[in-house]
């Protein structure tokens, strides 16, 4: 496995100005060191001023200042993309005040001017990330970075923006983070925070701890060979290499002393003695634990399931290998899940044939409803994907050890050189069975609004948990999606530091197929009706999912930024009635 080298670090903690003002002051108004209790011992450290925080324009050559508009050009609640000559900024007017931040969402580069402005924040039109317009800080996910913030001044009725050229070009800002005070003092087999799993939840937890000034040891461990990567791309952009989809470069983990153990599987957790036992016998003691192991793909139960060329897409290597083997060959995909449908869409242009086998009569029926499911199915059929519905696989047949045919229960035999299985997943929590951590009948870890389990100091996050969803009257739900994993990781970190922060985010997800995206916000489980506006045949529509009289979720295609608008209304705690959308 790979461990970040232990180095003696003398550097202290850096915190942005706005956070310094509130965190640096003790009750008597004098500057006081932050203190964290680490394994029972109080550890003091002072905040150190960071030149970038106090003067973001310390290099005059890096600064540009430009007049961008007249004060009356923008009404309250309006946004405008403005050009400063060497880059663009987003100018916003709210409550009579002007703000300027980066104009592109740091996640995938969406133009934020097309997003939704509401009560001091702007929400991305594509995937729902939210940014504070006063600070640029990220407040909801996906993505890891914040927006750069630029200075605005008004002179003679004109609005001027002063900005760093570098920030205008990068359009992103990584929040200031603490470092570890002295790694060389540590015993290799003990850590303050242990994070099991290196997906979005684990990484955001580690980053949030450092952003909040936590300066003790953090160890993440993963069964994967790679540092944390953008997992949704495995099915949406299948020939991406690990380094292309890495969430952070290797240097980032070294800089902020976040240690990552790769190809390391935890076999058991002893919560009484606070020890994680790895599969190879290695033991690690922890003070706080985050379990963010995600889920494990279900496999087929039929004859021939162990054969070569039958894949669950779990790693970049799996995805790359499927693309290579599928090119100009016959592909059978089992399961019209998000993964199955995205893989079918990706391979449709590359393979000789793509066949999709599904138990339901329409794809996505439970999630998007029958009418939207049919429209999506038609789009796939127009792109040469053949569906075999209301049946399942009875056998996989080989020739010379390699997959040759997929036999369906309907009796149909499909030619197949490659088979991809996307029939759902189960939480990867088997190793916790004897731990005393509360797990429900389906294997999900049960947590409260602060992502705490029933065991003090043990938190859980991501696809493997059920948590109370504020949007649905605190009903315990499982939301196995990318944005939610980020937010879980953040909430867990804040509560490891005893902030008492509760989760209240609105679930937001997207799927991409044939260059088109379906965006979705809310939690539609158990919807009893769907109100559709627009044109399903043209794939330009918005669908509102209702339960009794209330809108519980929304999906759209080619209708931005409606999903982000609805997400903002729901996030504000307001109810949308069925009659409002009919």
UniProtKB/TrEMBL annotation:
Tell me which family the UniProt entry assigns to this protein: Belongs to the FAD-dependent oxidoreductase family.
Pfam families xrefs = Pyr_redox_2, Reductase_C, Rieske
Q: What does this protein do?
A: Induces apoptosis through a caspase dependent pathway. Reduces mitochondrial membrane potential.
What domain of life does the native source organism fall in? Eukaryota
- For this UniProt record, give its keywords in alphabetical order, as a comma-separated list: 2Fe-2S, Apoptosis, Electron transport, FAD, Flavoprotein, Iron, Iron-sulfur, Metal-binding, Mitochondrion, Oxidoreductase, Transport
Q: What is its main location?
A: mitochondrion
The keyword Repeat appears for this protein: no
One GO CC annotation, please? mitochondrion
**Positions of the Rieske domain:** 66-161
Name by which UniProt lists this protein = Apoptosis-inducing factor 3
**Cellular location of this protein?**
Mitochondrion
The primary gene name is Aifm3
**PROSITE patterns registered for this protein in UniProt:** RIESKE (PS51296)
Which molecular-function annotations from GO does this UniProt entry contain?
2 iron, 2 sulfur cluster binding; metal ion binding; oxidoreductase activity, acting on NAD(P)H
**Biological processes per GO annotation:** execution phase of apoptosis
């Amino acid at each position: 496995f790979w461990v970040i080298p232990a180095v003696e670090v003398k550097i202290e903690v850096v915190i942005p100005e706005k956070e310094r003002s509130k965190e640096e002051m003790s009750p008597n108004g004098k500057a006081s060191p932050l203190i964290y209790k680490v394994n029972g011992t109080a550890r003091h450290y002072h905040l150190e001023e960071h030149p970038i925080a106090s003067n973001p324009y310390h290099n005059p050559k890096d600064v540009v200042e430009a007049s961008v508009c007249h004060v009356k050009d923008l009404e309250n609640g309006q946004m405008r993309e403005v050009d400063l000559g060497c880059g663009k900024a987003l100018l916003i007017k709210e409550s009579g005040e002007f703000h300027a931040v980066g104009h592109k969402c740091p996640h995938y580069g969406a133009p934020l001017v097309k997003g939704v402005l509401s009560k001091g924040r702007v929400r991305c039109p594509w995937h729902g990330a939210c940014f504070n317009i006063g600070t640029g800080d990220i407040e909801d996910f996906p993505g890891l970075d914040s927006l750069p913030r630029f200075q605005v001044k008004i002179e003679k009725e004109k609005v001027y923006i002063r900005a760093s050229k570098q920030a205008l070009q990068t359009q992103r800002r990584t929040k200031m983070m603490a470092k570890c005070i002295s790694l060389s003092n540590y015993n290799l087999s003990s850590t303050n925070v242990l994070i099991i799993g290196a997906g979005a939840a684990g990484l955001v937890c580690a980053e949030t701890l450092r952003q909040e000034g936590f300066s003790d040891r953090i160890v993440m461990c993963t069964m994967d060979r790679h540092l944390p990567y953008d997992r949704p791309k495995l099915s949406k952009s299948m020939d991406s290499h690990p380094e292309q989809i890495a969430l952070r470069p290797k240097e980032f983990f070294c800089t902020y002393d976040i240690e990552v153990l790769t190809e390391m599987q935890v076999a058991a957790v002893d919560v009484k003695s606070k020890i994680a036992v790895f599969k190879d016998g290695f033991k690690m003691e922890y003070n706080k634990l985050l379990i963010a192991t995600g889920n494990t793909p279900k496999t087929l139960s039929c004859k021939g399931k162990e054969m070569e060329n039958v894949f669950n897409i779990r790693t970049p290597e799996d995805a790359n290998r499927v693309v290579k083997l599928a090119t100009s060959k016959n592909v059978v995909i089992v399961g019209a899940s998000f993964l199955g449908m995205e893989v079918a869409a990706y391979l449709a242009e590359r393979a000789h044939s793509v066949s999709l086998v599904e138990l339901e009569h329409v794809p996505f029926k439970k999630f998007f409803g029958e009418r939207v499911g049919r429209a999506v199915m038609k789009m796939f059929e127009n792109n040469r994907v053949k569906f075999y519905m209301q049946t399942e696989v009875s056998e996989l047949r080989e020739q010379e050890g390699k997959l040759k045919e997929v036999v369906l229960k309907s009796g149909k035999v499909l030619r197949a050189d490659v088979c991809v299985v996307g029939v759902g997943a189960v939480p990867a929590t088997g190793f916790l069975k004897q731990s005393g951590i509360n797990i429900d009948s389906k294997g999900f870890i049960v947590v409260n609004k602060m992502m705490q389990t029933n065991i003090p100091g043990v938190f859980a996050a991501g696809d493997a948990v059920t948590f109370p969803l504020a949007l649905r009257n605190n009903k315990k739900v499982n939301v196995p999606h990318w944005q939610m994993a980020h937010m879980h990781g953040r909430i867990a970190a804040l509560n490891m530091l005893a902030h008492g922060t509760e989760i209240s985010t609105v679930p937001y997800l997207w799927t991409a197929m044939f260059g088109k995206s379906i965006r979705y916000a809310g939690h539609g489980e158990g919807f009893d009706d769907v109100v559709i506006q627009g044109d399903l045949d043209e794939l330009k529509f918005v669908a509102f999912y209702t339960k009794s009289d209330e809108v519980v979720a929304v999906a759209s295609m080619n209708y931005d930024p409606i999903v982000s608008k609805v997400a903002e209304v729901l996030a504000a705690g307001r109810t949308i009635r069925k009659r409002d959308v009919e």
